[in-house]
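re: ur question from earlier - yeah i can do the single chain one, its not a big deal. heres the input i used so u can compare w yours
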Amino acid sequence: MLDVTTTHALTATSVTKRFGGLVAVDNMSFTLEEKEVLGLIGPNGSGKTTMMNLISGAFKPTAGHIGLYGETISGIGASRVATKGVARTFQLVRMLPAMTVLENVSAGGVFGHARRWGKELEDHSRKLLARVGLPNAAELPVSALTYIDQKRVELARALASDPKILLLDEWLAGLNPTELNIGIALIEQLRKEGCTIIIVEHVMHAIRSLCDRCIVMNSGSKIAEGTPAEVLADQGVIRAYLGDENA
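and the output i got, formated as tokens:
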């Protein structure tokens, strides 16, 4: 295991992921500080979700290193990364359809970082449902929920293990304007509570209002890094999103 001494919450060093001849992530390096909200943005196909899959352990890097508070997590598998303290949501909501809302949330407390059981787990899960705005939904089947409420349940499930780092992969996608405001407010509350978060998002209003810092990817590589205002004014970023004629 690589010996890394760092105070960063997360460190990615020269991370590369190849799928045959396709380089999905190319020599990516960045850090995430504790209590920071970091935006990972870029056009479709730029490698953002692949990077999230590498951090969460779904993929093993072809090369490079990922460390969580100085401990290597690259290549150890998703279940072990979860127990180390990384939780995530997905582009498409993933519910456990045969289980109730409460059971869906409780699953995060059983298999994640801070494991709970029995009455302690149930109480914790109910508190999280109230925290995301669903205090009366515990006994409902997840099929009875609206899309935004399913996303709330997925967020509560990710929080159930008290993760060190929360990965939100386009969590705001597919929401109407009213739901979007609700979603942004929820993430803003997590930020105020000191959560350490990486957000992959296309909603620039959310990026501007929520993120301390942004990393922009294009064709698998980092092309810009800075505050939201800095990167969104960068000519290379504008070119990546809109083409040369708009840069």
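Residues 177-192 form the longest helix (16 residues). not sure if urs matches, ping me
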